[in-house]
Design brief:
TIM Barrel
């Protein structure tokens, strides 16, 4: 009888622990910054919108780096709304990862000047830059024959950690899909996130459910369902959250899209409810 009671208690104990493990999930945020005709609101699924400031909003001239200021900047910030993550700035005309010391110094100062101006206009705002650190690189992370390129990237990451990262509140690496090789993407993503976590700030991955437009054969096509799920799972394992980006202003939002249905399965499996 004692054995039976002990066994029953053991089954209940381990069963409870197993159920708890299945229902628990680590802190993880999934947000979106997508553009569709008529807009898109998927906050009811636990995926709220997060503010994104595009380069064209801050730097309206393509020939000048003069940033908007005064009432124009205030109106921009007032219209952004808020989200659960820091507001993201997307400026892609300046280069922080370069051997040209003069160019790097000027680019860094421009990036930081934008941060200073925005914080002066809205004190307390939290900010991060899309894809600036660590900058996106692919083949040096996969090809052992590109050791010198990998080392250059690592060295520039170390410099950015000292003189750039302290001025932002979170890291937003771009992990957009360049090629059809899923294993290649996984290595590229894990190596990028390994470095990103060394910066000591929260890390939120930018994912795009389509292949990068820079790929002439695949660009614009949606990822296969298993590929998209791999990306979601990899980011869940190695980061603090995901920003889903897509830009199709001429199309209506399709809630039945295969990639979105995969996203819903992922959210449910991780008990993610922002």
């Amino acid at each position: 009888m004692k054995f039976y009671i002990t066994l029953l208690m053991s089954v209940c104990f381990f069963g409870a622990n197993s159920a708890s493990a299945q229902s628990s999930s680590k802190p993880f945020l999934v947000v979106q910054s997508m553009t569709y005709k008529g807009g898109v609101d998927v906050s009811s699924f636990g995926v709220p919108r997060n503010p994104l400031i595009y380069e064209s909003m801050l730097l309206p001239s393509k020939t000048s780096d003069q940033m908007i200021e005064g009432e124009a900047l205030k109106n921009l910030l007032d219209g952004l709304g808020s989200g659960p993550l820091p507001t993201v700035i997307d400026i892609e005309r300046w280069h922080l990862y370069t051997d040209n010391e003069d160019e790097r110094s000027k680019s860094r100062e421009k990036y930081l000047n934008v941060v200073r101006n925005i914080r002066a206009a809205r004190p307390g705002i939290k900010l991060g830059y899309y894809g600036v650190v660590p900058t996106r690189t692919y083949w040096p992370l996969l090809d052992a024959g590109r050791k010198s390129e990998r080392q250059k990237w690592e060295n520039l990451n170390s410099r950015a950690a000292q003189d750039f990262v302290p001025h932002v509140d979170a890291i937003f690496p771009s992990l957009y899909t360049l090629y059809g090789n899923q294993e290649g993407w996984r290595i590229y993503a894990e190596e990028t996130l390994r470095v990103a976590k060394r910066f000591g700030k929260p890390v939120y991955c930018y994912l795009w459910p389509q292949f990068n437009s820079g790929n002439p054969l695949l660009g614009g096509k949606y990822l296969p369902a298993d590929y998209w799920m791999l990306e979601l799972e990899t980011c869940y394992k190695h980061s603090d959250g995901i920003v889903i980006w897509n830009h199709e202003p001429q199309k209506n939002w399709d809630p039945d899209a295969e990639w979105w249905q995969q996203t819903l399965k992922f959210l449910e499996s991780k008990s993610i409810k922002n």
